[in-house]
Amino acid sequence: MLSTGDQVPDVTLLEKNVPVALSSFRGKWLVLFFYPKDNTAGCTAEACSFRDAYEDFVEAGAEVAGVSSDDAASHDGFAAKHKLPFRLLSDPGEIARAAFGIPKTLGLFPGRATFVIDPGGTILHAFNSQFAPLKHVSEAMTTLRGARD
């Protein structure tokens, strides 16, 4: 898995079926979290945790984006149901997940990982934990605040 000091790969994801290159986030702080699937218990808890802390991330100068292999219709329903204010990006074929080297959980399920990325596209922190979905927010915020101070 990519880690601190690595450059973010310039892969392209989809937002409502429109291509979005990760390079388009250059010049901005970015918290990018990969999660397995919309509307599952752990993923919903994680997404709602990012939702609840969203204004803190904005105040710290960061954008937040969630990534899964779900399609635009699934993301739209997930975002509406849980009032998610951040971008949800689709990774069909899990190309971005592979480029970031995110391991599968138990060799079967898409992994859960969060990356804090500086405006130059360098990873400042990577956190990988399938079974601690709520910890992703605190890990990201602690890193972001430390980098911005």
Please describe what this structure looks like.
- This protein has 149 residues and is of the alpha/beta class.
- The chain has a single domain (12-148), classed as Glutaredoxin (3-Layer(aba) Sandwich), CATH 3.40.30.10.
- Helices cover 33% and strands 24% of the residues.
- It has helices spanning 41-59, 72-82, 95-99, 135-148; strands at residues 12-15, 18-21, 29-34, 62-68, 87-90, 113-117, 123-128.
- Strands 5-4-3-6-7 form a 5-stranded mixed sheet. A two-stranded antiparallel ribbon has the order 1-2.
- Strand 3, helix 1 (41-59) and strand 4 (62-68) form a beta-alpha-beta unit.
- Helix 1 runs parallel beside helix 4.
- The relative contact order is 0.25.
- The mean pLDDT is 95.
Question: Which key phrases capture this entry?
Answer:
five-stranded mixed β-sheet; Glutaredoxin; two-stranded antiparallel ribbon; 149 residues; alpha/beta; single chain
Approximately how much helix is present in the residues? 25-40%
Cα-atom Rg, whole angstroms?
A: 14 Å
Whole-number count of domains: 1
Reading the helices and strands in chain order gives EEEHEHEHEEH
Pick out the low-confidence regions. Answer: none
**Structural class of the helices, strands and pairings?**
alpha/beta
Sheet bearing the most strands, described? 5 strands, mixed
- Write down the overall geometry: globular
Return the CATH topology: Glutaredoxin
What's the SSE blueprint?
Elements (H helix, E strand, L loop, with lengths): L11 E4 L2 E4 L7 E6 L6 H19 L2 E7 L3 H11 L4 E4 L4 H5 L13 E5 L5 E6 L6 H14 L1
Parallel strand pairs: 3-4, 4-5
Antiparallel strand pairs: 1-2, 3-6, 6-7
Helix pairs in contact: 1-4
